[in-house]
Request: fold
Amino acid sequence: MTSPTRRDFLKLTTVGGAAAALFGFDLKPAYAQLRTLKIARANETRSTCPYCSVSCGIIIYTIGDRAKNVTPQVVHVEGDPDHPINRGTLCPKGASLEQDILNERRLLKPQVRRPGGTDWEDISWDEAISEIAQQVKKTRDDTFIEKDATGHTVNRLESIAFSGGCTDTNEFNYLIVKTMRALGVVHLENQARV
Amino acid sequence: MPSQTGGEEYDARIRRAENLSSRHPAAAEFLKFYKHVASFQKLLHASLAAAQGKENAAVPPGKLRSELDFTLLLPHFRGYLSVIEAHAPPALAESAGQMGGLPSGSWIASLEGYWQHAGRSDQPVNAFAQFLPRAFLQPCAEFRASLIARAPQVTTPRLCPLCGSPPLLGVLRPEGDGGKRFLLCSFCLQEWEFRRIVCPTCGEEAEDKLAVYVAEDSPHVRVEACDTCKFYLRTIDLTKDGNAVPLVDDLAAITHTLWTNEQGYSRLQPNLLGT
Reply:
């Protein structure tokens, strides 16, 4: 008695079109259920949590059937279990990242609160940019320090400070530092560390 | 890493099959039959464990497919064929009846052929042709694998590090606030770690080519499809349903199989019942 060879065995390894039907199972109930099956396509994307300089790995789930007129929708964010820094864990702030992307309280236009005012009012982007430019120029012209008390040239501006948000991109932070340094601003912080 | 080799594992599979067959009418016939198969596998596993207790020998790495002890296995084979004949659907029952009429040399040839070659070809197995040796030898492969001391894993191989077979399933187990992916071997049913967001068939890593399909009524069953090679891996997400038993929940997902076939995706390896 000889054992079957690999060639003999491979003769048995082609896949049947409907293997379950070959077994003799009744597939009618499964086909009936198939008609009511609601199935959604998601894509998983690796990214990095923007909040602090630990740089935890995250996986973002986006649903959408990739049709041209459909905007993919973020549905879930979770820790990346393969990431060597956090191995799937997230702090409470990182765990709420989905709300950073989808949030009905997100501001969609600029607002201003006037000196002495108690309410925020909507203004247009043009008005906001023009007003900020005027205020920055006036403040800089009034308070720019060209030389210190000992006569050394310092060219600094201590009356304006800039603080960047944690979700600002690296490119945005680069431009901010260039702009602020050009103005002489020394009180400057952003999060270009991640 | 979870062990899947104790007798209690078979009890868990049987309980889960009972539980799912009442909730998934479309898969009830599959699960009822599987319950009988798993009950037999539990008995065979217990005899293997009892015989091993006398020898007390660990299996060296790379020796999972070393010679089978037919003096121990063959006495169980006729009983096994009777179980299949009594509970399987007609085509399979007939096949078991025919096998029962063959001499024991043919049984040995069939079992030996499966044991040496299954999972080592590039082609997916034909579940029907291989059912009889596959279901019978599954407890042997599982038991042998449990006796191998495993070295810490430093890579993410696409084939089982113990026996070289392709994966049957993916399993997501809780890790931190996410799910760590393991692949479940189609031959020895052991799990090994595998990175997320990479196709286990062709190695594709482009995120827009790797779709995850999830049905509303069973969020823990994921179809992880690759648009590059058109193969898919079914993954059971234990972070969504901690009571799931991957091997059994896979059998219950028969509608997912029909749906993926319609979408033009192929499964890397079919499960025991060919779905």
Notes: The mean pLDDT of chain B is 89. The beta strands of chain B are 167-175, 178-185, 191-193, 210-215, 218-226, 231-237, 266-267.
